[in-house]
Amino acid sequence: MKDSKGLHGFSHWQAERISRVVLMALVASSVLLFLAFFAIGYHRPYPDAPTFNAPLLTDVLLVFMLLVVMGAVGIGLWMMGRARKVHVHDEKVVNGIPVVRNAYLLSGSVAALLLLTYLLGSATPIQINGHPFADGFWLRVADMFVWTTVVLVIVAVAIVGWHYVKMHRKEKV
Prior knowledge:
With 173 residues, this protein is mainly alpha-helical. Helix content is 65%, strand content 6%.
């Protein structure tokens, strides 16, 4: 329902305020869900192997995490499409920085890194709760996300270090 202030009164909210509210809602719901996960039925024994736990809220936690990831991917794709439509006639170079080329380079690099880490990922079966897990696709996907994260963290630390050294050298000159 549309009122005089826009769609449900949100049109006067700035993007920063909306972002802050969404972040706080996600953090609060995550904290509450994880507290409930560990407080309610966490030590319930697994029927097939009583030495293992079968927490009561495992399915709820998995669905929540899946919804958050799907929501983030969906909103990210929507924003990319929207930005492409809205900024199609914008300048490709802003303040001497080739923003469009950099955006394509970054997106392509991350996609290539994901593909490379998937292809190099191990499909060797592993033991989970005493049972072999041999689904090569999911083993490679798990490796892909782990190694992509490791590479991106190393790159981020290297860039921050390089920037720090560069700024430190400028101060001495």
